[in-house]
Amino acid sequence: MSASGSLTSGGKGAVLRSDRAPPLATQVFDRLRADIVCGRLLPGARISEKVLCDRLAVSRTPVREALLRLVADGLVRSRPQSGTFVAPIEVDRVLEAQFIREHLECGMVPRILDNWSADVAAALTALVDRQADAAAAGDLAEFHELDEAFHATLADTAGLAGVWDVITMAKPHLDRVRILSLDRQRHVRRLIDQHAAIVRAFDRQDGRGAQAMLRTHLREVLRSLRHLRDPPG
């Protein structure tokens, strides 16, 4: 998949805006980061500065600034005389991000319990139901967005939305593995069931059970990583 392929939707509709919007370099960075994390740009895909400039109707300066940030984040690699490419998925970065996420989210459990209510349970259950609908429809992008909303709601319930922001910043490498794994139906069903089990544990004020299920759930990405590295024959 080429860089041009991910930015052609809507033709000129892909042009970035400068009125009342973040700096152009940030917009380019956000667009490319999303394309890489969501798998629209696969590992090894070439990224052309010229194509990006043409598609987004921006100069080379914001494109180069965005690419430098992506290189620093380990999502892009630049090779002299060869060009710029989407970085491969690095196991060490995935494991680091998983460690951060597991410890921060599991650490929220006592505060979630303190603030738990019927309204929170209903909101989370609705998200789980919508995830099941998205999975049945094969809408994996919607499924992932609802997954994010589920965990963000847990953080909001704990009064720790800022911690979720920290997790979000830490997990792009983790998300690359998560999203590439959503094509396995059994895996998707397991994620839905785990979300439902997490809600049930909180609903019965079982902090230990909620934390154990949340930990199991957050370690699913390790199973996915093994599957991607050593696919069944």
Automatic annotation (TrEMBL):
Gene Ontology molecular function: any one: DNA binding
Domain HTH gntR-type: 22-89
Xref: CDD domains: WHTH_GntR (cd07377)
Pfam families the UniProt entry points to: FCD (PF07729), GntR (PF00392)
Taxonomy, superkingdom: Bacteria
Keyword Transcription appears in the UniProt entry: yes
Protein name in the entry: GntR family transcriptional regulator
Phylogenetic lineage: Bacteria, Pseudomonadati, Pseudomonadota, Alphaproteobacteria, Acetobacterales
